[in-house]
Amino acid sequence: MTETIINECPNNWNDVNISALGEIVSGGTPSRGNRWFWNGDIRWVTPTVITALKDKWLSDTPEHITEAGLRFSSAKLLPPQSIVVTTRATLGARAITKVALSTNQGFKSIIPNAETEPLWCYYIVETLQREMERRAVGTTFAEISKSDFATIPLCRPPKPEQARIAEILDIVDSAVRETEMVLAKVHQIKIALLHDLLLYGLNEHGQMRDPISRSEQFQNSPLGIIPKSWSARIIGDLANHVRSGVTPTGGGRVYTRDGVVFLRSQNVAFEGLSLKDVAFIGDKTHAAMARSEIFPFDVLLNITGASIGRCCYVPAGFRKANVNQHVCAIRLVNPCREDAALLAAILGSSIGQSQIEKLNIGSNRQGLNYPQIRSIVVPWPEPEERKEIVVRLEKMTARIEAEDTELSKLKQLKAGLSHDLLTGEVRVPITTSVPA
């Protein structure tokens, strides 16, 4: 989030309030009980629509009101290129209208005047959120009044400079959205690939087996049809260790600044171990919990609480570690990286998650016990095919990580540019065009 703290406006920028950007309009809600106010031709927006919006432009709304509803609500029809800003409960979410519409009372909208570039107005509002939060009042929910919203100070550059700033930020903004779309698409591809690889596998030529045209290559199993060369195995047959840890005597008071890594449910993510909030225990505490020590290529599974079913494997070279009672370690008879990665992928897929959900629903308590974990059925190919499946999945994971890294870089670039350009710390030339 970009934050602007106004001390002194840059040369030839004006020190103004939001009210100088255009007309400030409050929204309203027609009576829900009067059918003559609803299902009309006027688009009508609520804050939830804006918070769910993936783009800056708002072109349609789920609800519509009539002209009578508009008059009753004391709202106003906003023209295209108005800036709608949430000012109740959720503060500062915003969009630019592509069409004429009205809003409920959760908004203060800006109809830009002749001196205000609408797209620049959209971006400058983001820098004002901290001040909006400071001015908001309320016990049940925070709300900022029209007068308090209208008097928020800001620095306004001349309109040509507004347009240049908005143009530059829009280019970066578009790159961010495009990368987000690519990332979402790659995630969907991975889900489909995971499903097919874990049920159909790869033939001797490295191609996905086809259960329709090559039905003779498949067999029935408790998981449905799987390749004839595979087996449907329960975890109890594949693993010789299924065990969780305990909370050390003394709880969090025995945690140390360094020492043995003590993994809790928040450290287990589908993407791998998350060590941002990791705890440590001393060697003496660890020795007392020796039966739950974990090792590289153990598969960790959260077995209680809201994160039940979340899983990953312990990578090679991981330091000495233990787990608490919310995390179960599954150790294969002959542990190796590929098999641990495959088991974690299966447990994290619909194959494993559907079984975990059924076992949890059927349990007398919120959580999984060891016999239930051992009973989970997984598809298990031959060793060479297991390795090839993991290679395919890891290539897709690497692609996702690369897109995610690019997205993070673009967001950092946008944040830096927004601060520099919207505060005037970096001035933009007006006579040259922005590079594509």
List the helices and strands and how they pair.
Blueprint: E1 14-17, E2 22-26, E3 38-45, H1 47-51, E4 57-58, E5 63-65, H2 67-72, E6 83-88, E7 90-97, E8 101-103, E9 107-112, H3 118-126, H4 129-135, H5 146-150, E10 153-156, H6 159-199, E11 218-221, E12 224-227, E13 231-234, H7 235-238, E14 239-244, E15 260-263, E16 268-269, E17 272-273, E18 279-281, H8 283-288, E19 293-294, E20 299-302, E21 311-313, E22 321-323, E23 327-332, H9 337-348, H10 350-361, H11 370-375, E24 377-380, H12 383-423
Parallel strand pairs: 3-8, 4-7, 15-22
Antiparallel strand pairs: 1-10, 2-9, 3-5, 6-7, 6-9, 11-12, 13-24, 14-23, 15-18, 16-17, 19-22, 20-21, 20-23
Helix pairs in contact: 3-6, 6-12, 9-12
